[in-house]
């Protein structure tokens, strides 16, 4: 759908905003709002009256919404509540963090009352413009460009001061026109958000099906007509009658070899397995911390070993894809000849196995790391070698197919979000004229 331009434009005076429609102005945020900074953790409150209140962090201010599912509490001086209290209509903006989190304004609707905010979240309180308009501007290209160019930058993080934030240029159409643009954007972005939600539901279903296929194959085999027997293991249930159930120590020994001088540093990841740190950084587009000291204390691993990391109770045990070394705190497993790594890589990532692993200790509650002692408590299925390989081959095919569909869905979401951002950017800077579409009924607007 294409949109008309305005009939006349004027110079905005801001290079990254460009020309704006005649009759618009561009004002600095300091003329439209005041900025309330947040509370810093660790303030001494001994000897004074205190209260505990919810407070919002950077993690709560998400792209497009405020996440209140995980809100922490903080003890503050009772007299400080008014100073840091959030009010309806405040626009929350992140002071720092990853580049994609910087700025990112969202309107606070008092979903929690009272609620305050930490010092890494600004509460911008508009008095000369609608909060919703300000939130739109911060999410538009002109807002993103401002935050990126004004921020102090380190390797992976950025931050902006309240003084700099007050210099944000805000395109300001006349009030009636501004409200018309907001009505149009609310309707059109709502349509796009609904399409994104459909793709997200598809991804969730594909992941659920993917996991179900893995769990079924590694615990029941591929022959639905095969006689079954009780395994005597809670996480396995019934298994094919010709399978063995064996202690995990029969199949996997704990590796203790120290790192070699020429070992590359590896990262243990739930997403990619155990791969070189350089490859992980390339895939993720971000840097990770590299060990510079005590490299000789790290553990050597070979291809098709497995690694138990601190988070293995959440996502399974990871297969090693490259020769190198991992952290000394990790547990390494060396497979025997009877254990085919291709099969057990799926066993260790299956939901039933992970649940079995979780029953071995109270590490989730008490912060205890998963170790070899936990691993050895979980018996393992042992199909014949050729059957292990057949199961792995089928799962490679099925998971690759599911992963390809998931990638397509993610690509569709990226395109939808790109269109959403472009639409907002064009509308709030006046590159398109949507005034005539603001009140058009939905069916007619779609056909326009």
UniProtKB/TrEMBL annotation:
Molecular function GO terms recorded: DNA binding
Record-level GO BP terms: DNA restriction-modification system
InterPro entries assigned to the protein according to its UniProt record, in alphabetical order: Restrct_endonuc_typeI_TRD_sf, Type-I_RS_S_subunit
Sorted UniProt keywords: DNA-binding, Restriction system
Coiled coil regions, renumbered to chain: none
Record bears the keyword Repeat: no
Classification via PANTHER family: TYPE I RESTRICTION ENZYME MJAVIII SPECIFICITY SUBUNIT, TYPE-1 RESTRICTION ENZYME ECOKI SPECIFICITY PROTEIN
Protein name: Type I restriction enzyme S subunit
